[in-house]
Amino acid sequence: MVEALPLEGDPILNVGDNLENYQLRDLAEYYENTFPGLRVRQAPEASDPRTYRVSFDRIERLWGFRASRRVPDGIEEIAAALRAGAIPDPGHPRYVNA
Question: What is the Cα 21 distance to its own chain's centre?
Fold first, then answer.
């Protein structure tokens, strides 16, 4: 199958894996289980009633990309870096994008 690509620039792709579609509550649970004492709360104004699954078929079809690590692996990697002191100030603007 030949896929139409944008006329200019590179294709826009979702990077991930179809096995890795999470809801916010799932991610919150991973974080809370990994970081004792952490409680994640969603701001009421950020509530989004939509439900959908992101497809990563295009990146696999075009580039052969399949994720080799899972979200829980990344969360544990962050926890290990914090425990080791590799991220001395997690609140520093370098690490915060929200």
Answer: 9
